[in-house]
């Protein structure tokens, strides 16, 4: 048996012993007390009866010997009474004050000096009143205490013996009936813990007692638990696999999202480049034409001067034309320069972009200008209602992205291919809110699809260059970068409005 088993046995046996001993001692003490009490009563009663009998006997039998005061015959007469442990001493005093003391020889000397009860009886001769002497009996109940002590000792001995016998019997019974099956059960449980399937083999088959029932239950339970654990393990393995698959799918999705974001950025940059290139090309064309004109006019002036045919009105007219051409060159180069500046601003990275004070009204005007060529291509008649000089401190690129996404959608989705239509872009500052809205009179969006417009990857033109990220990006810019709100209102066959509201204080990135 291992140490643990031994501890259990000691614990169980010990506890049972203590309980049994306590019960036994209690019962024994109760019984002893009753027994001692009764013995005490009985012994005292017997003592009194014996004493009375002795007094009675002596009072009748020894008067004559006292009268004669014959110590020899008195000793013989009193001798038997002196073996009574309750009588300490008998004293005889006759009428002549002769005294005879007879101690109880059977008692130890010292106890004879103890406190005693004296009984004095006047002795008379048959029928006479005159006393012939006195007999004094010294009695004591000390011996009763001794007897009671003996009884108690005997009972204690019996009790100890009983407890020892009971302890041995109990220990034996416990070991055989309880601890042995428990040990077997424990061994079976340990074996099950170390086994693969965890099933407890019933070690108490045929015992046909409560332990066997417990073992059967444990065995059944272990079987069920083992089954459950197996199912859980399988489910866990499945879950692990599922998790790995989901992680893989998520990774793929992220990669796809990154790729699409990249392509969306490139697409919007591409359209901006195309717009700006066109816008720069126009003033450049004007400048080249003007310079060619100036060159022609200067050549003409030189020829006329050399030939001496130049008249004053001719000179004035040529100089006027030269002045006009120079102005054209100046205005067109500054327009081109402005466009290039805007282009630089638009092409800046949104997130990393520096915050600065700028005129939002003018900026949106510039973005629209850069897209004008594309709008024309799609036959979009864009009407602008921009409240002038709304000055904010923010990142302009965010607003460029918003306007470009809104207008791109009008071009791509609002009207059937090949057809154009009307669109209104509004900017206003109302009650501490910057309001930007884009309304078209196009085909609209079905009610059930409106809530999906801001979902990433939601597009109705999949496979034809749309990624479904435009409004998702716009939503993030408005919600997270500018802490505003964006909503879509649309009626089919009537048109769509995107409403953006940005708190003015949030528009100020202090
Ligand atoms: N002005 C609009 N008119 C009609 N439908 C629109 C308009 N703007 C957006 N949509 C719808 O919302 C969808 C999501 O737009 P967006 O996120 O920009 O993705 P994408 O333009 O790549 O399709 C579009 O595919 C289109 O169905
Ligand atoms: Mg779009």
- Kindly report the average pLDDT value: 83
User: Taking strands numbered 1, 2, ... along the chain, how are they ordered across the largest sheet?
Assistant: 6-8-9-11-10
Number of helices: 11
Number of strands: 11
* Text of the CATH class of the largest domain: Alpha Beta
Q: Report the span from N to C terminus.
A: 80 Å
**Main β-sheet, in a few words?**
5 strands, mixed
List of distinct ligands in this structure: adenosine-5'-diphosphate, magnesium ion
Helix share, percent: 55-70%
- CATH architectural label of the largest domain: 2-Layer Sandwich
In CATH, the topology of the largest domain is named Beta-Lactamase
Number of domains: 3
Uncertain runs are 345-350
């Amino acid at each position: 048996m291992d140490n643990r088993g031994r501890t259990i046995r000691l614990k169980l046996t010990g506890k049972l012993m203590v309980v049994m001993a306590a019960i036994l001692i209690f019962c024994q003490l109760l019984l002893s007390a009753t027994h001692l009490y009764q013995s005490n009563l009985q012994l005292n009663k017997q003592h009194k009866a014996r004493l009375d009998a002795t007094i009675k006997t002596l009072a009748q039998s020894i008067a004559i010997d006292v009268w004669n005061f014959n110590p020899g015959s008195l000793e013989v007469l009193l001798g038997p009474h002196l073996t009574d442990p309750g009588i300490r001493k008998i004293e005889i005093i006759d009428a002549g004050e002769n005294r005879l003391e007879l101690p109880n020889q059977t008692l130890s000397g010292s106890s004879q000096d103890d406190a005693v009860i004296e009984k004095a009886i006047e002795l008379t001769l048959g029928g006479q009143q005159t006393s012939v002497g006195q007999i004094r009996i010294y009695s004591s109940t000390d011996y009763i205490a001794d007897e009671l002590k003996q009884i108690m000792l005997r009972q204690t001995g019996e009790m100890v013996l009983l407890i020892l016998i009971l302890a041995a019997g109990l220990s034996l019974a416990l070991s055989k009936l309880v601890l042995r099956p428990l040990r077997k059960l424990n061994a079976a449980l340990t074996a099950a813990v170390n086994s693969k399937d965890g099933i407890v083999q019933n070690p108490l088959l045929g015992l046909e007692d409560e332990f066997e029932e417990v073992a059967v239950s444990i065995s059944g339970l272990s079987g069920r638990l083992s089954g459950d654990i197996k199912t859980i393990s399988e489910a866990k393995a499945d879950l692990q696999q599922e998790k790995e698959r989901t992680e893989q799918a998520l990774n793929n999705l992220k990669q796809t999202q990154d790729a699409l974001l990249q392509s969306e950025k490139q697409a919007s940059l591409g359209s901006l480049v195309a717009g700006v290139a066109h816008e720069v090309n126009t003033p450049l064309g004007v400048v080249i034409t003007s310079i060619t004109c100036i060159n022609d006019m200067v050549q003409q002036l030189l020829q006329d001067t050399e030939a001496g045919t130049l008249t004053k009105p001719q000179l004035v007219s040529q100089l006027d034309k030269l002045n006009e051409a120079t102005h054209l060159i100046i205005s067109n180069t500054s327009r081109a320069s402005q466009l290039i500046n805007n282009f630089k601003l638009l092409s800046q990275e949104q997130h990393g972009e520096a915050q600065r004070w700028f005129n939002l009204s003018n900026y949106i005007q510039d973005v629209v200008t850069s897209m004008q060529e594309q709008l024309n291509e799609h036959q979009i008649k864009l009407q602008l209602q921009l409240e002038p000089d709304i000055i904010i401190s923010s990142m302009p690129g965010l607003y460029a992205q918003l306007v470009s996404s809104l207008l791109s959608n009008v071009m791509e989705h609002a009207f059937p291919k090949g057809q154009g239509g009307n669109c209104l872009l509004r900017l206003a500052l109302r009650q501490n809110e910057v309001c930007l809205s884009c309304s078209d009179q196009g085909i609209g969006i079905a009610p059930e699809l409106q809530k999906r417009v801001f979902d990433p990857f939601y597009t109705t033109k999949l496979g034809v260059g749309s990624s479904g990220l435009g409004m998702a990006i716009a939503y993030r810019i408005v919600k997270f970068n500018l802490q505003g709100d964006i909503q879509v209102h649309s009626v089919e066959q009537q048109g769509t409005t995107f409403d953006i509201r940005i708190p003015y204080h949030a528009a100020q990135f202090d």
